Predict the 3D structure of the following.
Amino acid sequence: MKSGNLMDSLISIDEAQRQCKMRGDGVSAVNTNLLIFIACDPVTSPRQSQRSRWKPSPHEIRYRAYCDELRLKCNAAKFQLSDQVEMIFYLPMPKSWSKRRKKELNDKPAKTSPKDTDNLAKAVLDAIFKDDRHVWRIIATKYWSYNGGLMVKNLGQ
């Protein structure tokens, strides 16, 4: 498998979990330097203001909890990002969608999602790094899925 090939990204959430050989807590047990899968609902990075310091919005509270979860799981797996990263976001489908629509869109690109791909990637980088200036290449894609998740793959190894 060539690293960086966009066709490598077209895998289902089940295949991502298989590649990571999941433990029960959502942290991969092997390949900690190359690949990690985290079972959680991806959250975008919010626009923060001065007011956020003393009265955070509900979205900012969710974002902070998401960042804490990512940090904990990456530290538990001893996963460190390199300077080239591929991120695959599995967005949970809305509960209001019909079973037929969910079946049709499962593992398909999330083109109509209100979450911006760049803000999803920014949230991951901000959660894991205090300073992410050394990251020079990011490939980020998002797919619909029954369950939320995030797969991060190091490309520059």
In short: Strands lie at 35-38, 84-92, 137-145, 149-154.
